[in-house]
Write a structure and sequence with these properties.
heterodimer, A: alpha+beta, 8 strands, B: 9 helices, 22% strand
Chain lengths: 126, 223
């Protein structure tokens, strides 16, 4: 949710950095988005195209690296990707049926990764 | 410095940013949490769709607990102070937070509202979020516990359809159980769905109008 407002922040932040670097054009923007960050990437890409028009970011390429949800179990120490329930309600859908149940001991895991939404780097022409 | 290398005109180079966009709200939420802890105030988020019984739940909790704790409440809504006034009638300080067009409370609004309270004369703070089962999940406010209120009138699939908010739910209140029969489905399914997502969630059935189950909610919250 709020993809437009997050993408707007992305564009503002990149433009601010580009100005700091006295860039003529921005060629690429590299983002890292965790799968537990509630962001719809299709909407982010669409918003990006709209928001960069008329700026030095126009025609720049947006690369989004997706990260899986990472969990850790305080009970048994299991560390790994977040598990999914096998539930027919969720087949072929964008959001898989996540569960915080530990696949090893059945306890409840904590989320330790997969929530990030960051701009990793940008490629500019000065 | 003898020689400085600078980028020549037309040169392309990479700039590492590592700029985290969600950090801003999280940072303020952490500050809110620290401030509440410092003053010994336990803050509890109450979230849920429109009309599930969030205000009714808080009313009943305030009624039961005001003899034991010094309580205040925040009530978030796009507009009006209707619900805030309802809670205020129970004799506790209630701050109405109008979000305007924003569909959820955020940590910054809570930070502003906290300034209206005399924190060292309080033990407990209820924060009722805007009626919305989706967006509040993304915005931590700095509370100690998160309660999600659903109603049987929302049907049997509410939990399955909104996994993200239930991931972060310490307590799930299934309200309006007096209407379960009229809805014609087994309420235990909702409980199972919640536990599948977060095995640590405590699920309590209530009828916030009659007060049924409120004692269990209080126990589940450790109050």
């Amino acid at each position: 949710m709020h993809e437009f407002s997050i993408t707007s922040q992305v564009v503002q932040s990149v433009l601010a950095e580009a100005e700091k670097q006295k860039a003529k054009r921005v060629l690429e923007v590299h983002m890292v988005v965790g799968k537990l960050s509630f962001l719809g990437l299709e909407q982010v890409r669409f918003s990006y195209k709209v928001l960069v028009k008329g700026t030095i970011m126009e025609r720049s390429k947006l690369f989004i690296e997706e990260k899986e949800g990472q969990v850790k179990c305080p009970n048994c120490g299991y560390e790994g990707e977040i598990s999914h329930e096998d539930d027919p309600s969720y087949h072929n859908l964008a959001i898989p049926p996540i569960t915080l149940r530990c696949p090893k001991c059945g306890g409840t895991v904590e989320i330790v990764g997969g929530r990030e939404c960051l701009i990793k780097s940008v490629k500019i022409v000065v | 410095m003898k020689e400085v290398v600078v980028a020549g005109e037309g040169e392309i180079f990479d700039v590492e940013l590592s700029l985290d966009l969600l950090k801003a709200n999280e940072k303020i939420a952490d500050e809110n949490k620290a401030l509440l802890r410092k003053n010994g105030v336990r803050a509890i988020d109450v979230m849920g769709s429109i009309g599930t019984g969030k205000t009714s739940l808080i009313e009943k909790l305030v009624s039961e607990l005001k003899g034991k704790y010094r309580i205040a409440a925040f009530k978030g809504d796009l507009t009006t102070t209707i619900d805030a006034e309802i809670i205020e009638r129970h004799g506790i300080q209630t701050v109405a937070i109008n979000t305007g067009k924003e569909c959820h409370l955020d940590a910054n609004l809570i930070k502003k509202a906290l300034k209206k309270l005399n924190l060292n004369s309080l033990d407990l703070l209820f924060i009722e979020n805007v009626g919305n089962l989706i967006c509040p999940a993304e915005f931590p406010l700095g509370s100690e516990k998160r309660v999600v209120v659903i109603s049987v009138t929302e049907g049997p699939y509410m939990v399955k359809k909104h996994p993200f908010i239930f991931m972060g739910a310490d307590v799930v209140v299934v309200n309006k159980v007096d209407l379960a029969q009229a809805m014609g489905f087994d309420v235990s399914n909702l409980e199972e769905d919640a536990k599948k997502i977060n095995p640590n969630s405590k699920v309590v059935r209530t009828n916030c109008r009659s007060g049924e189950g409120i004692g269990d909610v209080i126990k589940a919250l450790g109050l």
